Amino acid sequence: xxxxxxxxxxxxxxxxxxxxxxxxxxxxxxxxVRGCMVIKPWGYAIWEQIQQQLDCKLKQTxxxxxxxxxxxxxxxxxxxxxxxDGFAKECAVVTHHRLVATAEGNLIPDGKLEEPLVIxxxxxxxxxxxxxxxxxxxxDLPLKINQWANxxxxxxxxxxFLRTSEFLWQEGHTAHANKQEAIDETLQILxxxxxxxxxxxxxxxxxxxxxxxxRFPGAVNTYCIExxxxxxxxxxxxxxxxxxxxxxxxxxxxFATKDGGLDYAWTTSWGVTTRLxxxxxxxxxxxxxxVLPPKIAPQQVxxxxxxxxxxxxxxxxxxxxxxxxxxxxxxxxxxxxxxYIDKRDLRGGDKAWQWIKKGVPIRIEIGVRDIANxxxxxxxxxxxxxxxxxxxxxxxxxxxxxILDSMQANLLTxxxxxxxxxxxxxxxxxQFNQFFNEDQLISKGFASCYAIDDxxxxxxIKPLKVTARCIPLEQDASSGICIFTGKAxxxxxxxxxxx
Amino acid sequence: xxxxxxxxxxxxxxxxxxxxxxxxxxxxxxxxVRGCMVIKPWGYAIWEQIQQQLDCKLKQTxxxxxxxxxxxxxxxxxxxxxxxDGFAKECAVVTHHRLVATAEGNLIPDGKLEEPLVIxxxxxxxxxxxxxxxxxxxxDLPLKINQWANxxxxxxxxxxFLRTSEFLWQEGHTAHANKQEAIDETLQILxxxxxxxxxxxxxxxxxxxxxxxxRFPGAVNTYCIExxxxxxxxxxxxxxxxxxxxxxxxxxxxFATKDGGLDYAWTTSWGVTTRLxxxxxxxxxxxxxxVLPPKIAPQQVxxxxxxxxxxxxxxxxxxxxxxxxxxxxxxxxxxxxxxYIDKRDLRGGDKAWQWIKKGVPIRIEIGVRDIANxxxxxxxxxxxxxxxxxxxxxxxxxxxxxILDSMQANLLTxxxxxxxxxxxxxxxxxQFNQFFNEDQLISKGFASCYAIDDxxxxxxIKPLKVTARCIPLEQDASSGICIFTGKAxxxxxxxxxxx
Lengths: 499, 499
Prior knowledge:
Structural class of chain A: alpha+beta
Strand content of chain A: 25-35%
Helix content of chain A: 25-40%
Largest interface: A-B, 63 and 64 residues
CATH superfamily of the largest domain in chain A: Bira Bifunctional Protein, Domain 2
Oligomer: homodimer
Mean pLDDT of chain A: 96
C-alpha cells in the first residue's frame, strides 16, 4: 500500500482524516475557548478568496455592505416568536459590563445590565429594527444590504469549520415593495451562491427548497444548496430565505405605497459561512491532504528553489525571481496568477510536501539543471506527487492558464460524477429503511423519493438519523406516491445523512 | 450670511456640526443597543476603502491575516497584570449560554458558564496563548499576524465613530527573535499608518511616542500618530506598541534560539479603528457636509442626468452611460476611477446636494445642452457649490486624474498649514496654564513644551483637562528645561485637549 501524507486515510477513518487534513494544511485549530476555533493564515486566506468573489458578485447586483451591532437586546429578539424559539437554546448572553477584583484578588463580573444582551446568532431582529426607521416610502425600496460578520451559536458538539460556537459569515438582508420581487431576490441569491460554489469552489450542488419542518425560524420559504461530501453525506452550503411579511410585521417595517396606501415590506435574508471551507476540504481533498481548486487557491503556483551551494543559490534565486515575474503576468480567471517563491531555509523535498498538503495547484522546482535546459519542472496537485513533468519555460508560461483551467474543470467534473453516481431513486419505505438503516455510521448516498412536504413525514426519517435535505427546484414532469404517506405528489425530495 | 447645508456651522457649535455631518452624509447612526452604532452603507464603504489600502500595505510587508475567538476566558485576561487593570472596567461579560422562558413567558439567561468570558477589548492575551503553541524555534520567527475584527469596550459617554462600545479595527500582533527587530516592526507599522493617513486620508500627523503614563496597558513603549481636528483638538489616529517580553512571559511564548538557548519572544501589537472615519470627518468637512479626499472616496465621480421629458431622458442616459465608461477607464492612484450614474427618480438639484453632503469629489450634471456642446458641466467638492465649470468632454477626460490629484494634494496642504499654524511653543508653566485654562471648551491648539517623561507631570496637566499627546520622534537638536519640574531635557512634548 502506498504511503500517504495523511494518516488515517479517507477510507479507514473519514472523520479523523478530515481533522488531520486541517492539521496538515495548517488551516485552523481549536482555541482555549470552548467550541471556538482559531482560523490560521492559510485557512483565512481561503476565506478571503471566497469573500472577494462573493462580495464582488453582491456589489454587481446592487447590494451594499453595512455593519450592525454585535449585541442584540432580548426585547428585540423576542419580537418574532418562531425566531426566538429557534435560537434561544444557543445564545451567548452578556449580563455584566465590567469586572471587579474580590478581596481575594479574583476577578468577577460586575455592573449588571438592566436588560441582558445576546451575541447575535443572526441579525434579522436588529437589522429589522433599523429598516423600520429607514423605510418610509416605496421610494426607499428595494433596500439590499449585506454584512460580513462573526456569529455566535453555542454548540455542544463542535467540529472545526463545520460546527463551531463562533463562525464567520455574510448575512444579506433585503426589503421589497412586493412579494414577487422579494421571491425573485431570494432566488437570485441562490443562483449567486450556486455560481460561487460550483464555478469557484468546484463543488456541484442541488438547488432546492427546504421542507416546511426544516425552514429557518420565522421564514416563509427557505431555499438551499446541498453538496455531497466524499463520505456521501450531505452538507448545506448556503441558504436563502423568503421571510414574507413575518419580520416586517414584528419590527413594523411599513412603507407608503405608490398608490397612497400603507403596507408591510417583504423581506429576505441569506448567508454563507466559513462552513464552506469545511465542505471544500471534504469534497476535493485526498489522502495526501488538501486539494484546492485553482480559482480559490490563495497561491496558485509555488516556486521552490533547489541549490547545493552559495554559487548555485544566487543563480537559482535570480532565475526564480524572473520566472515568478512572468507567471504573475499571466491572467487566469480574470486576475493575475498568484505565485510565490518559497525561500525558507528548509529542504526542497520538505517544502514540496508542505505545499502538497496545503493543496497548492502547481508546484515548481527549479535547480541549475532546469536553468541549463531552459525548462520548468513542475507537479500538479491533481496528479500523484511523484508524477512531475518538465516543459520548456516558454511552453509552460503559454500553457499555465489552460492547465489551471483544466484542473478547475476536472475537479468539478469529478465531484459531479461522484454525486450523480450516489443519488438513488427509492421507490418505497422498505427500500428507504434499508438504504439508511444498514449502518448508522456509513452513508450510502442521497435518496431521491416522492414525498409530500408535511411535518408528518418527520417521524419516519428521524429514527434513522436521516434528514430531508431539500425539494430540488429541478423536477421531472412525472408524479408518484409519497413513500411515507401514500399521498399523490409531483415532487421528489432528497434525503441524506448530513453534517 | 450664506445658507449652509449643515446647521449648525462649525463655528457656532462644532460638536453638533459633527453629528449633523454624519446625518447629512448618511454615514452611521445610534442603534437600540446602548453605545453601539450602525455603520450605514456610505460610512461602511469609506471603511472598506481604508481596509483595502491598509490590508494591501500590510501584505506587502509580509503580514498575514488570521482570525481569533471573540470571547476571552477570564483566566487568560488575568495573566498580564497591567493589561487586565487597564481593561477590567470596560469589559462586556458573557455569563450564560442560553435563554429559557419563565412561567410568565419572559426570557431569562440560563446555562451559567463555569468561567465567565469577556468579549475581546483587544486580543493580546488570546493571541499570545496561540503564539505560545505555534512558536517553538527561532525558525518560527518572525510571526507577523493581523486580524480585522470587532472590539467591545463598554463606554459610558459615547459619540459615533469617536467613542463607541463596539467598534471595528485591525489589530496586528507580531513576535520576533530579538528586541531590535520588534522595535523596528513597531516603527515600520507607525510609518505604514502615517502613509495611510497622510497619503490617503490627507490628514497630517505628528509621529511620536506616548509618555509613560499614557502607554497601552502592558506595553514597554507606545508609539502613535496624532492629528489636529478643525476645532484644534487632538485625535490619536493610530497606535503601535512595543511590548517587550511582558506578554510573552505572561503567555510563555518561548523559543529555542539559534545558539541552542531558550528565550522569550519579543512582541508588538498595533491598530487603527473606525475612529479614523471620525477624524476624517473632522479634519476636512465644511459647513456643507462631508469632504472626502479622492483617494478614499467610495465614489470619486457622480453623474447626474438632467432631462425634462422621455425623449430627452433616453438621449441623456445613453450619453451618461458612455461618459461613465470613459471615466471608469481613467487611472487615478493606481486604480480605475470609481464613477456612478445616479438614475434615481429625484430632482437633479436635490441629487447634487445629496452628493455634496456625502463629500463626493466630482459631480457632473449632463443635460441635452451639454450633449449638444460636447461638454461636461461639473462641480468640485473643494469649490463653492455654485461655482461649476464646463469643459469639452475630451479635455475633461484627459484632465480628470490631474484634477483629482490636485484635490487630494490641496486637502493635505490645507490641513498641514492649519496644524502648523496652531502648534505653539510655550516656554513656562504660566504660559501653559493660560493657554489651556481660559476656556475649558475651546481649544487654542497644540502646545509644544520641554517636558520630562515622568508621571509626576500629570498633576499639572490633569486639572486643565489636557493630555500629553506624544513626544514627537522628530526633535530639533536644542535642549531646555521641563516647564513642570525644572529638570533639563532635550525633548519637547505635545499637549492638547483631545478626543
